[in-house]
Structures are given as structure tokens and as C-alpha cells.
Amino acid sequence: VDKPFLSIIMPVYKAEKYLPKSIESILGQTFTDLELILVDDGSPDRSGEICDSYAEKDKRVKVIHFTENKGVTVTRNTAMQQAMGRYITFADADDEIATDTYEKIFEAIKDTFPQVVVFGVVEKYYDRDYQLKFTKEITLPEKYFSGSKQVREYVIELEKSTLYGYFWNKLYDAEHIRKHNIAIRDYPFDEDFFFNRDFFMEIENMMVLNMAPYSYNRRVDEGLTSRFFPNFFEIKEERVAGLLSQYEYWGMCTPYVEKSLADIYVRYLYAGLLRQFDRRANSNRKSRRNWLKQRYESEIFKRLIPISEPQNRVVRIMSWLLKGRHTTLCLSAGRFMHIMRNSLPLLFSRLKQNR
276 in helix, strand or coil? Predict the structure, then answer.
């Protein structure tokens, strides 16, 4: 059997409303040497039937059905094991991708075939009536990175731009995934970051493309209806620690890397703090104060907060409050952010984007 150049993995669950549009945005690509693996994750709606109907019409479509819901980690890992392509990429069932995306990527990499291709994204923010309110494009300059040193130096730039931590803005060399036995770990969120960290550990080359063909649709939910993760901050802290240890493993943990991570850590600390004001956190004034004081005592706080100097003026003030351990003022800032996120979610999202 001729192996396709590209395998696209799409987990599907309760997606019947937007699934046809997403599937067609892939099958309608001007680049045709691909397979689309749809994983029906025990979906209770008509998603499974929709997947099968496309598989009947187009031999490039493979469908995996689970009788019960297993979650995206299992679905993606199962599909990765069955993928036949030279490269693997991921798509979500409610996102869209420009029609000439894979053709443009193929043209850009056909002389080098790097181990990973990274491109930009357009984040589209919708209100609860699904009206588009604003978009933000994130891209980086085009460059081919040869040799592990060049790639590793640039990883921190990928993370600062937020492009390191996504699945769907990358093409991954399938051979590298198999050789190093890389699988997606089971996290409630940010599992794509941890996969990328594992994938990038030993790679030798990379292509970054200055294009943003992928639309990531975000619904700006009111705080009460958005999902709540009790261990939100712990996972974000693990993300920062993960990058620190990655750079230490590479022997490249420079002051620049540490400072960049310190600035990111300040944001995560306040994101964690504002969640302490969510009713579902079951926190009171005393437990919020204790939560913050526990952070002060962590090794990562002591290492990073003293060196943080964020560019953004608001974040710089937030950093200063943490440096001085001004607990009451930090808590007031957290409460203010919580109120703002709930009452003006679109404005809050827009301000958050001003990095």
C-alpha cells in the first residue's frame, strides 16, 4: 500500500453540528496525499454516522469507533499507532483550516523534510451566541533550524509566543515518534505541551513557517459555565518546571531562558489565584491567603520570581507585588481579575492577549 505523506488525526465527540465543515476543510485540501483518521469517541449524537458517511465517499478517510467515551488522550494515541503517514498532525472537530495549507507546507519543506514543522494560528474569539468578536493572529518569522543547538535555543521563543504548546500547528515526523516511543500523556489540559516537550527533547532540525492557516475557535464562556480544573495551577507550574528541566537537560538554561520563564510564571500564578475566587474552588479568605503563602515557599517561586521583569506594564506590577510578597494586594488583584473575567469576559480575553 502506498503510504500517504500526511496523517491527520481528529478526535470526535458530540460534534455533529460542526463536524462536516471541519472534515470538508481537510478533504477539500489542494494537497491530496493524506489520510484523515476520525476517532468517534463513543459520541452519543450522530457524529459516528457522519464519520462513516465520509469514509464511504472518500477512501482517504479511516474511522475508529469506541463504544464508550475514552477521552482525547486515548483517542489520539490509538490513532497515532494506526497512522500510515510520513508526518502526523492533529485537528479538532470544531476548528477550520485554510484549503491550501498542506500544499503550502509541502512546498516549503520538500527539500529538507525536517523532523517538525511549526506554523502560526489565528485565535477566533466568539461570545456565547457564537458571534465572532475579535481575532488574534500569532506567527513567527520563517526559518529553517539545522542542528539541535539551533532548535533548542529557539524553543523558548516558541513558548513565549504560545506556539510551543499546541498540537494542531505542527507536523510531526512519525518515525521520530516511534523511535522515541513518544505518546500523549493523560492531563486534563496542556497535554499537547507535555507531548511537545517529549518530542522536542532529541530533535535535530525544524522548520518554522510564517503563516497562520489554522483557525482555533475559542468561545469566551462566562466563568460559571467554563470548565473548572482544581489542579489548574499545579499543571501550569509543572509546565514551567518542565521547560526549566528541558533546558537543564540540554545544558542551556541561560539567564535569558530563566527570565523568560519567570515572566510566564507570573501570569500563571495570577491565573491560578483568580481561580481561587471561583465558587467551585470552595475557598475562603483564609484558604486563599494560605494558598498564596504556600506558593512563596516553593522552590520554583524562589528561583524565578526574584528575576522576573515582564515587559507588559500590568504584569510588571503583578510581578512587583509577588516579589514583595504583598499578600493582601495580590489577593485584591486576583479578586478583581475574577470579577472582570466573569462580568466582561471578552474584554478580559482581549487584555490577556496583549503580551
Answer: coil
